Fold:
Amino acid sequence: MFKRVVLFTLVILSLTLLAACGGDEKKEEAPPPQQQEQPTAAPQAAAPAAIVGDAANGGKIFSTACVACHGPEGKGVQGLGKDLTTSEWVAQQTDEQLIEFIKKGRDAGDPLNTTGVAMPPKGGNPAMSDQEVADIVAFVRSIHQQP
Ligand code: HEC
Structure:
């Protein structure tokens, strides 16, 4: 009788162990797909190094930082800033190139200067962030008229 109880207990124990192992296997299988998703998701999040501009915010900044020379609608002010809405030069630049241009400006003595008037870096607002410059570029794109 005692032997039977021991046997029975052993059988139950081994069944429990098997079940436990089976359960563990399932648990071990589950994580890898999650881990695989992370490496693919991470580069995607890191990949767009270019800043995405917010045209609405860019318009607000434009109306304080650029308006004096380029006018409220970007159509330019005689003798100060150029018309940005019809500028072919603007149309030819990539967003990255326009961001670089606005950050640098264009000196009056720059060979590319067409008016003899200087375009100040960031319109003369050195505290302007890269994000704000990108927002302005998005705004400039939104007011640019395609020929
Ligand atoms: C003090 C006046 C002044 C301010 C402020 C100013 N600009 Fe200009 N900007 C100019 C002048 C002058 C030029 C033309 C330079 C030239 O003759 O090539 C110019 C040219 C440009 C051009 C190139 C246009 C082309 O067809 O070559 C862009 C783009 C531009 N400005 C954007 C901006 C933005 C955006 C701001 C605000 C952050 C700004 N500017 C603020 C004076 C100004």
